[in-house]
Design brief:
heterodimer; A: alpha+beta; 3 strands; B: alpha/beta; five-stranded parallel beta sheet
Chain lengths: 74, 154
């Protein structure tokens, strides 16, 4: 997923903040994974700016689906 | 012989060697790199699809109908396949599948389609990978929406 995520991160810069955690290397990532009750990798959690969770995807996710979700965030 | 003639004969020799190599390629040489769009057509046509990633990766999301044959099982599994049957091969980024299609080419498979850009470029639907219900939100308000990704390198 990295090439897709990198491309989307650049495209949505300033509109959506990307927080990417390799949970094998990042203790903060492991903590957040627990906080968000994420049990699998990769997991994508999409939050609106008021902190509410809009969507959650598990597994390889097509780029067009990612774009649709990112575009829908408020 | 002057330098100009030597250069001409050298060029002729290079072209002759390339032509000879092309003529002597194994009969089974049939790997075709295909775009995600072409791959979608091939899948729709019912071509057998082989996913050479690990089982764990496969279970997290795969092209619908794909069979999971991890790289370390490819030799044993493909020994029973019909070399005349067309195949579409893919992995996540095209790295492992490049090795797989070269192996299958050496084994005499006639038509091997290769999704060279990998699953990351696939635009169609996926099996397994899915939307799951949001959990109770514990996030704090931020200036912009946020996307978290929790991943590993495998």
């Amino acid at each position: 997923m990295k090439p897709v995520v990198d491309r989307l991160k650049a495209e949505y810069e300033g509109r959506v903040e990307f927080r990417l955690y390799n949970v094998e290397e990042s203790s903060e990532g492991q903590r957040l994974m627990q906080q968000y009750n994420a049990q699998y990798v990769p997991t994508f959690v999409f939050l609106n700016s008021d902190g509410t969770e809009a969507k959650r995807m598990v597994g390889e996710t097509p780029e067009k689906n990612m774009r649709a979700i990112l575009d829908s965030l408020k | 012989m002057d330098t100009k003639k030597m250069l001409i004969w050298g060029a002729v020799a290079v072209v002759a060697v390339i032509a000879l190599v092309m003529l002597l390629r194994p009969a089974g040489s049939g790997v075709k790199d295909v775009s995600p769009e072409r791959a979608a057509q091939i899948v729709a046509d019912g071509v057998r699809v082989i996913d050479v990633r690990t089982q764990a990766e496969y279970e997290m999301g795969a092209i619908p109908g794909a069979e999971n044959v991890p790289m370390d099982q490819l030799a044993a599994a493909s020994a029973n396949w019909d070399p005349a049957e067309p195949l579409l091969i893919y992995c996540t980024t095209g790295a492992r599948s490049t090795q797989a299609v070269h192996y299958l080419e050496q084994q005499g498979f006639k038509t091997v389609y290769h999704l060279a850009a990998g699953l990351v470029a696939w635009q169609g639907d996926l099996e397994h990978g899915s939307e799951v219900a949001p959990m109770p939100a514990e996030g704090e308000p931020t200036n912009t929406p946020v996307m978290y990704e929790f991943f590993t390198d495998w």
